[in-house]
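Next comes a concrete protein, fold included:
___
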Amino acid sequence: MNRVQPDSITRRELLMGAAVMLALTVSGALGVRGGLAADQQATGPNVIQQENAREGAADWQLTRTRVDKPDGCRCLAIEGYCSRQSVAAGEKLQIMVSTQPASKFQIEIFRTGYYGGRGARLVTKLGPLEGKTQPTPEPDERTMHECRWEPSAELTIPADWISGVYLGRLTTLPEADDKPYWQSYVVFIVRDDRPADILFQCSDNTWQAYNGWPYKSSVYTHPKGGQGPWADVSFDRPYGREAQYSGIVNDPLSIGSGAWLTFEFPMAYWLEQQGCDVSYCSNSDMIRPDRGLKCKAFLSVGHDEYWDIRQYQSVVKMRDGGVNLLFLSGNAVCWVSPLKPSSDGRPNRVTFRGGPYGGQNQWIEQRLQKHGPFPERGPDEGYLIGARNSSPINGGGDWICVKPEHWIFAGTGMKQGDRVPGLIGWEYHGDPPADLPGLEIVARGTAFQGGVNPSPWTATIYPGPKGNYVFNAATIFWCQGLSMPPGHTLPWSHWSRPHGPDPRVQQITANLLRRAGCLP
């Protein structure tokens, strides 16, 4: 195992970054924001603005990657995983890598962000390292594959690595120029504890629930069926292709990165383009409310289906404490997914479908009747999100404005019935609680499964107890309307697809963040 101290930010680079961001402040060239708030003008650029003033990487995406078979889930040539979902400055992170056949390789670690449109910055390079083929574990009775690979590299996170989602690009180093190299990613989150304006929760429980590594092995592929509490999944394995819905995500470009590049990165790219003060965390970081209570706004992003009950309790406390909640997601808070330790005792490294959230709606009751009682049952998610997971839960459609006079639509020019094409999918929310005080329906419509099985969806907003609000965008695809960063390809679902950046989606998101005090 190689222990490597990453490169640090130099004082010259930091001063250059600050100078660039101050110039942007004067010119007001921060996209939708149109400039910085007065307090930021007085105190200087925040850490995200300083970071994004640094030079981005011209080459950080995967160039050569492959899966082991046409319907396969893994990149046998080189693949890996990290010892933690998230890590703080000063903590150690181990990276486990397997190469087949054995070969030398390198790891380039990039922080993803805006960086003048490049999308990532190289923070360190590890290697050359000696690779070897590490064993594929046999599944246990719950079909869990838990790798116990030897670490290939270990690093201590420097104090100047700011919070963000980091990708490690693994690249084999062939001995001759006429031999091909192969690549895949590992992914981890650097977290912090500062009182940032925005807390961005990555949906990594859901990434892992759908992870098909080594071959179609997820919570959906147990021999007893795909919707029961029988299957465990471990974070101690590489991220391969999704086992359940591999046609929706862009697998070749993103293998090893979970669902970050497909469903969540457009949100982060846009936020950092605006200079927002944002901090990042994993689902497992939200089992206590302390982190979120330090922030003005909490974001649930993309496909955020699997929540430990402690996450739910934390976010309820945050709402009641005055934090603004933005569910820019679909199918969120659907399954209670208890986090359990790994076989060697590391916390929060195993999860499973413990049981459903939800009130007495038809979809939940049908599942309970079919599969019997689950070991856990969560509360009705509608009283947190402002809508529920209903049936059928997958499909596609247009996002349709029904309350254009609402403040979220200010500056969009949207009128009653105006549509954002393809923004609904691949899953969504509907069935809002009729008795939730102050709840307003701002958009609604019908999703279809390839033109059949109509299902209503509903976007909502309701007031919190301290002048805050809870917004439900009602679609996994919301972030597709914000940006089209490098390394990202638009998903599609059920013969429906989002069209990419839309100024109306950008303006609605800006209005929400401005109301939360996160934009001037």
